[in-house]
Amino acid sequence: MAENPDLTFEPMADDDVLVARMRASYRMLPAPSVAQIERCTRGVLASVAAGATEGSVAGAHGTSGTQGTRRSGGLLLRPQWWWGVAAAATLVVTVMRPWRGAETQRNADSAFAAGTAAALPVGSIRDEGDGEIRFDLTLPTAARAVAIVGDFNGWDETKTPMAKRGADGTWSVRVPLSPGRYSYAFVVDGREWLVDARAPQVPDAGFGPANAVIVDGAE
Amino acid sequence: MTDAELVVRTRTGDPEAFGTLVSRYYDACWRFAYHMLGERADAEDVVQESFLRAYLAIARYDERDQFRGWLFRILTNQCRNALTSRGRRTRRFVQDDIALETAPAAPPGPATGMEDAALVRALAQLDPAQREALLLKYAEGLEYSEMSAMTGAGESALKMRVKRGSERLRVLLGRSLEDPPFGSSGEPSA
Fold first, then answer.
1. Are B3 and B11 in contact (CB under 8 A)?
2. What pTM does this model have?
3. I want to staple A184 with a disulfide (CB 3.0 to 4.6 A). Which of A96, A150, A192, B184 is the partner?
4. Do the chains contact at A57 and B53, CB–CB below 8 Å?
5. Sequence-distant (≥ 6) Cβ neighbours of residue B42 within 8 angstroms
6. A1, A7, A26: which to substitute to probe chain B, counting the most B Cβ within 10 Å?
7. Quick one: closest CA in B to A71, which residue?
8. What is the pLDDT of residues B65-102, one digit of tens each?
9. Looking at this predicted complex, what is its ipTM?
């Protein structure tokens, strides 16, 4: 289709309806499962361990699902790569301990179920109604500094520090957020990364720090 | 830990750092790829291949860029390639090229049954470049300058793709746009 580079763009009046509908469709998809994310990570590491290079990937490129190769978790693997896959699987099991995230989540769930939430860091979010979301985090132990990181600040722990409120170990910050979907986490004393166990969705507790997801932002 | 720090650790061969990057961006990549391709399995394939390419090219990543933008640049290329590949495979089995050119896009497979299926179907019938521009602009909320850096297309061209794509989308959605399945807030109606 020919595109006129000089034509002025005038947004149509009902563009906001399309925007709302697209964002709603994004939001209606559930967060990917832990297994889905782990499968992706393992697939990449297995391919790298098996000697995948940019050239070999480019060679396989555009042939997804075609003959001559075998799919593993959606990725193309040549038969001679399976030794590498076995080595990578060993690496994953011994070093990355993929069950660790599930254990963390189970521990958190059981603690909340037993009514001992006060013993755990407790986060909460509240729509302030003015385009801002307030994030609170109550910590059972003293902390020198707490920050929030997420999609909205480039995961930079220096950008959005939280302020301590009162003496009960609660830290707060208000973040201006346009409607959308954001992953976030709390960082305590610049080193301890905490998931908000009471967030609406906690999709990815499989590898390293987990993130919670806030859906909608200030909408 | 910031993306830049995770990238540095990934470059030294730290699999946990790479796993954190995947868990941080998988969600956004998958949503975009699903709406581009209309198929859950295809979206998973493309996202995984994008992360593999990112891993292999991470030595060339410039820390002055946003990691998300760099990753999406790879992802949009992979989505285009998947669509091209899908077209080639389809053409191989279609005898009548004219019928292929005039046939509407195949209805996409469901992801979960919860998404806006009418919108996903309508998106699948758009020109892929228009679909890409609409999603980057409307769903991802990017500025045209960011989209231009990501796609390599000029800003004016991208504005035209958004304009024409949204016009076509309105036609395809028809009455359902006037009476969407969700309210203007995007929440399901009671």
1. no
2. 0.59
3. A150
4. yes
5. A64, B33, B82, B86
6. A26
7. B45
8. 889 999 999 999 999 999 888 766 655 444 444 443 44
9. 0.77
